[in-house]
Design a protein that fits this description.
Blueprint: H1 7-20, H2 44-52, H3 71-83, H4 90-103, H5 106-118, E1 123-125, E2 140-145, E3 148-159, E4 166-172, E5 178-184, E6 190-196, E7 202-214, E8 218-219, H6 222-257, E9 259-260, E10 263-264, H7 269-300, H8 309-335, H9 346-358, H10 363-376
Helix pairs in contact: 1-3, 3-6, 4-5, 4-6, 6-7, 6-8, 6-9, 7-8, 8-9, 8-10
Length: about 375
């Protein structure tokens, strides 16, 4: 077996590194010093550079102006984005586009995907339900009404909603089926209330009160929402991995320079052991991420496995949530008081890590989901 990345995937990494090279984690006010959002909008100049480098169209088919790459390529780019805390809706935008491309109708794909690939349209997704702990599709009802569907309900913590042009909203029909509706941000009956993430980013509490959506903008195949949710969870793991790698590198540089008793503290056994443990966490996060991303692609091709792909995603998210938390906690400890200095970027990484740890469910929630899968699909 060949576990190396393809030339196209490696080229995507190099392009991402070039785009993110000048991005500073300190580009906006600190979340520790800002009572509301750190900024009203995402980083539009960076978004334009991503579009110009064809990284927004990376996962789109050639017919929509894309390169036709896969989930693995997207995760490689997301890992680079997280290393510099890039403030762009790259995950939500690309995951929504992939779901529309895979399961949407021709008219919907033609209306959204080419413009999304150019960065002219911004897509996001509502994936946290009413409270962040219940299934997102159960928080909104959808009923057909002639050629339209009518949506009612709420979704909490929708990322980048105030800046997006279209929002993907999962909903249920009352008959156990989940649909995925693509709703313009400016729509009668749709209101957004400001919320704020742990990292200081602006979120939205989305209320839908009799929102009418044309039938062509509703994907009735339940696999669309399943794919979107799976991509969001896998992409969150990629962000956690990139952030953790940046933090461990930052910690290594600091402990290699900081001296006590005339020696760098990195030479002390207690420090070295803690850093080594966190390195092991990162390698576990990496291998489970690529397993989940690879299974996503193989499942699309019809390949099966001992467990449904949701099991691989759950394992990756368990490691991502627990691993990224341990990495930033150890980094804070080894930095001493310097790690809490708001003039030093580590506290920003800590805030982002906590957001990623809990996003789409903490480790405990995915452990419960994995247990249910194992009970339903005995491996013996």
């Amino acid at each position: 077996m060949d576990f190396t990345f393809t030339e196209e995937q490696q080229a995507a990494v190099e392009a991402a590194k070039a785009v993110f090279a000048d991005v500073s984690p300190d580009g906006v006010p600190s979340p520790a010093l800002t009572p509301g959002a750190v900024a009203d909008d995402f980083d539009r100049p960076l978004w334009a550079r991503l579009a110009a480098s064809d990284l927004l169209s990376l996962i789109l088919a050639e017919e929509h102006g894309g390169a036709g790459l896969d989930t693995i390529a997207l995760c490689l780019v997301l890992r680079e984005a997280a290393k510099v805390l890039a403030r762009v809706p790259l995950l939500e935008h690309c995951a929504t586009a992939m779901a529309v491309q895979a399961h949407g109708g021709r008219d919907l794909a033609a209306a959204l995907l080419p413009a999304a690939g150019r960065g002219d349209l911004v897509l996001t997704a509502a994936a946290h339900g009413r409270t962040g702990h219940d299934p997102a599709e159960l928080a909104v009802t959808a009923r057909p009404d002639g050629s339209h569907w009518v949506l009612n309900g709420v979704q909490t913590s929708v990322p980048w909603a105030q800046s997006a042009d279209w929002i993907a909203v999962p909903a249920h029909t009352g008959e156990g089926a989940a649909v995925l509706a693509l709703v313009p941000r400016v729509t009668e009956g749709l209101t957004l209330a400001d919320q704020y993430s742990t990292s200081g980013e602006r979120l939205a509490h989305l209320t839908l009160d009799g929102v009418g959506v044309p039938g062509t903008h509703v994907i009735e195949d339940p696999a669309a929402w399943q794919l979107l949710h799976r991509l969001l969870a896998t992409g969150t793991c990629a962000l956690a991995l990139g952030l953790g790698e940046a933090v461990l590198a930052m910690t290594g540089q600091y402990t290699g320079k900081r001296e006590q008793f005339g020696f760098p503290i990195a030479t002390f056994q207690a420090v070295a052991v803690q850093a080594a443990d966190r390195y092991i966490d990162l390698r576990a996060m990496e291998v489970t991420l690529w397993q989940a991303a690879w299974r996503s692609e193989s499942a699309a091709a019809g390949a099966g496995g001992p467990l449904p792909i949701a099991g691989d995603v759950a394992v990756a998210k368990i490691w991502a949530s627990e691993g990224v938390r341990r990495v930033v906690q150890t980094a804070q400890h080894l930095h001493g008081g310097f790690g809490a200095d708001t003039d030093y970027p580590l506290h920003r990484y800590h805030a982002w890590a906590k957001q990623l740890e809990l996003q789409l469910g903490p480790a405990a929630a995915h452990e419960e989901a994995l247990g249910d899968l194992l009970a339903a699909h005995p491996l013996g």
